[in-house]
Amino acid sequence: MKAGWFEKFGEAEDVIKVGEQPKPSVGVGQVLVKLATSGVNPSDVKKRAGAFPNLLDNGLVIPHSDGAGTIESVGKGVPESRVGQRVWVYQAQYGRLLGTAAEYIALDANRAVALPDNTDFTVGACLGIPAMTAHRCVHADGDVRGKTILVTGGAGRVGYYAIQWAKMAGATVIATASNAADKALCIELGASQVVNHRQPNWAKQVLQATEGRRIDRVVDVEFGANLPEVLNCIAPSGVIATYSSTQVQQPSLPFLQMMFMDLTLRMIIVYAMPEAAKVQAINDITAALKAETLRHRIAHIVPLDSLSQGHQLIEQGGFGGCVVISME
Fold this sequence. Notes:
With 328 residues, the protein is an alpha/beta fold. The protein has helices spanning 12-15, 42-49, 121-124, 127-139, 157-168, 180-189, 202-209, 223-231, 255-260, 275-291, 307-316, and strands spanning 2-6, 16-20, 30-40, 66-74, 86-89, 104-108, 112-114, 148-151, 172-176, 193-195, 215-220, 234-242, 264-267, 298-303, 322-326. The chain has two domains: 2-126 and 296-326, Medium-chain alcohol dehydrogenases, catalytic domain (Quinone Oxidoreductase, Chain A, domain 1, Alpha-Beta Complex), CATH 3.90.180.10; 132-271, Medium-chain alcohol dehydrogenases, catalytic domain (Quinone Oxidoreductase, Chain A, domain 1, Alpha-Beta Complex). The strands form three sheets. Strands 3, 4, 5, 6, 7, 14 and 15 form a seven-stranded mixed beta sheet that branches. Strands 10-9-8-11-12-13 form a six-stranded parallel beta sheet, sandwiched between helices. Strands 1-2 form a two-stranded antiparallel sheet. The chain is globular and about 60 Å long. It starts with a strand and ends with a strand.
């Protein structure tokens, strides 16, 4: 099969190869998926750059956890009726070497989720990390109906979905964005107000937007950098759900201040979510896809031959939406 892989860490153009690899065999409890698309996420490019030094100890890595395609065959214990089913896959390269940047993947059947007929494979490649992370951030700590949620970086890959999940669940959403286009997008997605996180003391803007009422929950894209401002606008007993801290990778916590506010700090990554939370997210994603109530944004579609370009796009940033690799 045609696939992309890396055998050493480094810059994308230096280490990513595209060529032929053995087609995987389906095992017990697994499905073999003929992939149409593969999603590129920041975690994928960090792995390739060397974030996990032991990753290559047991051989080459075919990257990416997200993707979509059609089940070609099933292993023992999986119903034959699943053959021919359109699916999206997630967690494909977690705890294993062979991910979705290939024409085929064999993986546990529960990691291949039925994709509704009205949903394109390109969208399917965006659901695993972005949509599921956002769902967990919004729903991990109970019902949000009637609560006010701040989504930082509302136009980003996760924030984009978080605004929608929160709005659909009955919350009032305040978002942050740094330019007029992103502000308009956040409003379209359901945010009632948008503040500029690049301006100093932006927490004051949040409180102005809420008429002085502090925020109940925060879905945060830059925990370390945003924490001082978040603490200026979050309510006592509030929850900070964060999935990234790129700018300040080892943040210091003002423990006493946070303790006396009775705050909950939740750190989120799809791989470690409880299975029950994954099932809840999958059920809600499926319902939203069928009803066409969830919007999606594909920024770039590049062919498998240009896999290194997909990684470079994620590293360069400067755009909103997902990067999808096409197998065709």
